[in-house]
Every structure is written in C-alpha cells, then in structure tokens.
Amino acid sequence: SVRSVVYFQNNLYACDGNIYVKNADAVRGWSKVDALSGHIIKLAADATNLYAMSVTTDNANKTTKQLHTTTDGKTWKLVTLASGEEISTIFDTGSAQSTCTAYVQIKNGETVSYKQLNGSSTHTPSKTPKSSIVSGDYYAIKEGTKDKPQWVIKGAGDTTLTSGKGTIHSIALSSDKSTLYVATNAGVKSYNVADKTEKTLPGPNAPSMVKSSYNYFAVFAYGDAIYAAPALEGNVGSGVNGLFGYYESRGNWNVE
Predict the structure, then answer these.
(1) What is the pLDDT of residue 165?
(2) DSSP label at 121?
(3) Cβ(66)–Cβ(38) under 8 Å?
(4) Are 219 and 235 contacting, i.e. CB atoms less than 8 angstroms apart?
(5) Distance between the two ends of the chain, CA-based, in angstroms?
(6) 0.85 cut: is pTM over it?
C-alpha cells in the first residue's frame, strides 16, 4: 500500500516499499525509481532535498531503520543521526512551495523529539512541530483521555477545524487553501476551511471509488488533482488499487 505522496522539484513521488515518480502536472504516468535498497515506508521533501525512510531486516530478524536524502532523485546519501536516536517517522509541511520544511520524529528511549532535516544532517528547529501529521497551518493530534481519545484537526492559532472523525493518518490542504482533505480509517473526508463544514469529495464516482469502508494511509493535493492511498494490496501503476487519483480535467476518480 502507498504510504506517502510528496512534491519535489516539479515531480510527485510516492512510495509503497518502492519509490515511484511522475511529472507533477501529468495525468498518471508513474515510473519506478531504482535507486535505494530496503523497504521504503515514508517520504518527505523540502525545497532542495527529497528524503526517504527505509526498513531492512537481517538474517537474525533484526530491523534497521535508515534515513536517506537526494537532491536530484537519483543519487542518495545517508542522513546522520546522533547515537541512540531512533527514527519514528519523517514528514513535511505538505506544501509545493519553496517554504516547505521537512522533519524527522525521533525516539531516544521514552523521549520523543523533532529535528528539522537539512540535507544529510539535522538541526533543532526554530519552531517545534505540534504533530507529524501536518499540511500548511493545519495539524492533527490525539486529545482526550487514554480511555476516550479522539483525533482533532487544528489550524492557525490552534483553532479547531473538526474532531472525532476516527483515526487520522494524513491531511492535505488544497492548492487554493479552501479545502482540507483528511485520510482516515473510514475513508477520506473533505472540509471547507472557511466555515469548517464537511463536504462531499469531487467526482460523481467518489462514493464507489473512495469508499468509507477503506482505511486510507495518505492523501495529497496538487494543482487540481487529489491523490488518496487506501490500505489495499498493489502498487503505483500496477493496475491494482495502490493509489487513486482525481483530476479536475478528467472529472472522475481512477486507479493511478
């Protein structure tokens, strides 16, 4: 299943264990990137670097997580972390602009912290992220009690957009910043940013394609396109439901 879709240097990249790329403005047309070993489970990007998180398992069944970076999508380097630091996940602010920032969430024992990614190194961010699920000014966090937790999406000034909509895996702000798309364990939700109301997804076949019975790992918006990744078998471009795409020019959802 696809776990990430990100924008980097006029291309979109997606991962499902492998990495795939296509021109950001193209309708479909994904191709495999043969550059990294290991199972790629997450991607992130900023204005100058693309980042990939990989997992490998040796003969002794020991799992190793590593973080890689590239400036051209072809030649990769390892990102250096301090001794004792373990990668939890990587993410970015979800913007296709030069202001996009990438982060790594780190565990050191029981302590969780964030570092900003800067090529093959990291540094302490000037502003600590409030969540690893973020897009623009919006972020998703789990609030409430241990017995009754609920997911909440907040925006600028920590104002609440919505809450209690199942488990949230990913959010994506539309290019015109009018709509926030939310990937959950019960489908993809869509919200008007202005009045905080839920609305239907675009496309007449959205109910039959982007089913509420599916668990969605990722959602991404770029230009007039929306991408949604359900937890189904298959990969990008395989003809199986690894990634769904909606293009305004096409008017319908379809398998990527």
Answers:
(1) 61
(2) E
(3) yes
(4) no
(5) 13
(6) yes
